[in-house]
Design goal:
Blueprint: H1 2-34, H2 38-44, H3 49-52, H4 54-76, H5 80-99, H6 103-130, H7 137-166, H8 169-188, H9 196-199, H10 204-207, H11 213-224, H12 232-264, H13 268-284, H14 286-296, H15 299-302, H16 304-315, H17 322-338, H18 342-350, H19 356-384, H20 389-407
Helix pairs in contact: 1-6, 1-7, 1-8, 4-6, 4-19, 5-6, 5-8, 7-13, 7-14, 7-18, 12-18, 12-19, 12-20, 13-17, 16-17, 16-20
């Protein structure tokens, strides 16, 4: 009877993770398809290269706005409403993007998609954390980010083909369909609804509905003080590292297609292929990255995942061929593979149970500033100089983040 019960438990876990990973795959697939459409926007809307890059800025701005909301929802209601609601809004916003005749309307739709995707992402992540032990978090989070990266791998190639065959608007219909499937996945997953507010009441200041910069700072400080004093510096470094990680990710997504198209004359399919090759490398890193995180140490993944991008960014402006870009994107994939869930896993090790959603959301909200300003600043640098300049400017920032992770942050893996 015990073996039968254990078998049923294992089957239930496998089913739940298949559904959660399926949602992560579709999320990456949807956004990945948008990336190779960016160069096409310059002609379709008669805008500059820098303006076209702001599609990623709009998406990042939406994530910035949606992440704090996600943290509150997950601590009070649990992950299921986030998975269903986030995917539903994403699907509707993608339809509006398809219908919009103006570039401004497209940007608004992408901002809504970013906000909904932030809610959708944190929901499925917390659902997975609720189902696992502390010494399994690295592999679970690596799996989440790895499967999401598989979507980002396939998405650009599919998006490039759709853009060349039927125009960039077709991509948004495909995005709406993938998000629609995820609504169903969120409804049928058996997610444990653990509410922190049921076990540990939030402090009075956190329950305040007052708005404003001062009140927001007070709430953030109240949450920060719930972290053990010896781990607060580690949390702060993890926040900064997440900022620079998003700088790396969104700069690659926004500026590399423009660099490849304008400097090297690459086609949308070739641009999509670059991201597909990188994603294949990321996929190959899922198991090794999870093993490193759970068996060797979190820092063995977080530090190299910032050192390698710093070197890649330094070398991109000196590429003169598509083949050279392919080689650098392979190294980019290795870095992304090592970072698969490493910052999120380390943060879950640091934050207390009762405030995990809000502290994770706070980390990502601050980090989303990097995702918000990287394409914006990158677009300005591209207009003032060329599409290679953003990579040279951001390379030292990534190197500094790697230094702090190595020297200041503590190792958070509890070895038994």
């Amino acid at each position: 009877m015990k073996n039968t019960g254990q078998m049923k438990l294992n089957n239930s876990l496998l089913r739940n993770f298949a559904l959660l990973y399926g949602a992560a795959l579709l999320s990456g697939l949807g956004w990945g398809m948008v990336i190779p459409t960016i160069p096409s926007l310059t002609e379709s809307f008669d805008i500059s290269v820098g303006a076209a890059a702001q599609t990623v800025t709009a998406y990042a701005a939406g994530r910035f706005a949606g992440t704090p909301v996600a943290g509150i929802i997950v601590d009070r209601l649990g992950p299921r409403p986030m998975m269903v609601g986030g995917a539903s809004v994403t699907s509707l916003a993608a339809v509006f993007a398809y219908l919009s005749p103006w570039f401004g309307g497209l940007l608004v739709s992408l901002a809504v998609i970013g906000a909904a995707d932030a809610i959708w992402t944190l929901g499925r992540e917390v659902a997975g954390i609720d189902l696992t032990r502390q010494d399994q978090r690295g592999r679970v989070m690596s799996g989440f980010h790895g499967v999401h990266s598989v979507g980002l791998t396939l998405g650009p190639l599919i998006g490039g083909i759709l853009t060349e065959m039927a125009g960039f608007r077709t991509v948004y219909i495909a995005y709406a369909m993938s998000a629609g499937i995820s609504v169903f996945l969120g409804l049928v997953v058996d997610s444990p609804e653990q509410r922190a507010t049921e076990t540990q009441p939030a402090p009075a200041r956190e329950r305040s509905h007052a708005f404003g910069l001062r009140q927001a700072w007070q709430r953030l400080w109240s949450l920060f003080r719930q972290i053990e004093p010896g781990l607060r510096n580690t949390y702060a470094v993890l926040v900064l590292a997440t900022v620079t990680s998003l700088v790396f990710r969104f700069t690659i997504q926004s500026m590399l297609p423009l660099y490849a198209a304008k400097q090297l004359g690459s086609t949308p399919v070739e641009i999509g292929l670059l991201f597909t090759i990188s994603g294949i490398v990321v996929f190959g890193m899922i198991v090794p990255a999870g093993f490193v995180l759970d068996k060797v140490g979190r820092k063995w993944a977080t530090v190299p995942s910032h050192v390698i991008p710093a070197v890649v960014f330094l070398l991109i402006p000196f590429t003169t061929s598509f083949t050279q870009l392919v080689a650098l994107m392979c190294f980019s994939g290795i870095a992304s593979g090592l970072s698969l869930g490493s910052l999120a896993t380390s943060c879950y090790d640091v934050v207390p149970q009762a405030a995990r959603g809000r502290l994770q959301a706070a980390r990502r909200t601050i980090a989303d500033l990097g995702g918000l300003f990287a394409p914006l600043l990158g677009g300005m640098l591209a207009n003032a100089f060329n599409a290679a300049m953003p990579f040279l400017v951001f390379s030292p920032i990534l190197a500094f983040s790697a230094l702090l992770l190595a020297l200041v942050a503590k190792e958070t893996l509890a070895k038994h």
